[in-house]
Design brief:
With 309 residues, the protein is mostly helical. Helix content is 80%, strand content 0%.
Length: 309
């Protein structure tokens, strides 16, 4: 299979679809399981699946682990344990679509972090695209109150999920900066492995995971299985492949599709979004395509307009 930019875009979109569905499915998992325990069960399935595929596809070599063990542990702690722990804890109070929209702000922090690391700034139109996308996200989160001048309320779960999204930004950039001579599959496998171990220790200290697992419903366990295979194994692997082919900054912009998929799934479940949400989705889509160069604007004309303002 040729690793073309078009393939990278397709893989990244599939990853964001799974993540978009995770927000709704996680609510089912949390009906009878505490957050850290549910997260551990998710990655129990994910680690088994990814290492089985890893051993079959490439073989598990100690050289890669010895060379990158510290990076795998740190990135696993931040991008797997940190992001997903915040994800499950935050969704106890946050609305699934709102949570997805908060995660969509990740490209902003990722591009800023990548610019700092590489000592360069992103192109003008990419910045404009990111700002437009962020505006669309803000409109949906506040249900239009940001524009109409109403009272904007943010729940604790939203803040926790936002902190987790910052961890994902570090993970996305870190896989390219700190990991050396490792394939996307190896990086996904080892960071997921160490992240799952860290999640397990946290669950033991703050919850009673064995008791919780035994009392969980079939639906909750099924939800964990889905997000463990699709929302973890497939999504992480495809995301890291996209990063390896196109770079962290360009790949991160596609995180804006996570809330779009979340909204589509919400509609399919019979929950029709409000008009401000739909407007915000449209704004976000325009920003994504503008930032990716799919919608072209004459830079000279744009700069001329800015000077006249």
């Amino acid at each position: 299979m040729r690793t073309t930019p078009q393939l990278a875009i397709a893989l990244t979109l599939i990853a964001t679809f799974f993540w978009g569905s995770n927000f709704q499915v996680t609510k089912f998992a949390l009906t009878s399981l505490p957050p850290w325990t549910a997260s551990v069960e998710r990655f129990f399935y994910a680690v088994i699946c990814i290492f089985t595929f890893f051993a079959w596809k490439e073989g598990i070599h100690s050289k890669v682990l010895k060379q990158n063990w510290w990076a795998f542990i740190v990135l696993g702690a931040i991008g797997v344990a940190g992001f997903n722990g915040a994800f499950f804890v935050g969704l106890q109070s946050a609305n699934p679509v709102t949570a997805a929209l908060i995660v969509a702000t990740t490209p902003i922090s990722t591009n800023i972090l990548e610019a700092i690391v590489n000592r360069r700034l992103p192109g003008l139109m990419r910045v404009v695209g990111m700002v437009i996308s962020l505006l669309g996200v803000a409109v949906v989160i506040t249900n239009g109150e940001l524009i109409w001048g109403g009272v904007v309320q943010v729940v604790t779960g939203d803040i926790i999920i936002f902190m987790g999204s910052l961890g994902w930004s570090i993970y996305t950039v870190g896989t390219r900066v700190f990991v050396k001579d490792a394939t996307p599959l190896a990086t996904t496998s080892w960071t997921m492995f160490f992240g799952a171990i860290i999640l397990g220790f946290i669950a033991i200290f703050v919850e009673s995971p064995m008791t919780a697992l035994s009392s969980g419903t079939f639906e909750s366990h099924l939800a964990c299985f889905y997000i463990g295979i699709g929302g973890s194994t497939v999504a992480y692997l495809f995301w890291n492949m996209g990063v390896a082919i196109r770079g962290a900054g360009k790949t991160a912009v596609f995180f804006n599709f996570v809330p779009i998929f979340a909204l589509i799934i919400q509609i399919m479940m019979g929950n029709i979004p409000s008009l401000p949400q739909m407007i915000g989705v449209v704004i976000t889509i325009v920003g994504v395509f503008l930032g990716q160069g799919n919608i072209t604007v004459d830079n000279k004309l744009f700069k001329s307009i800015l000077r006249k303002q």
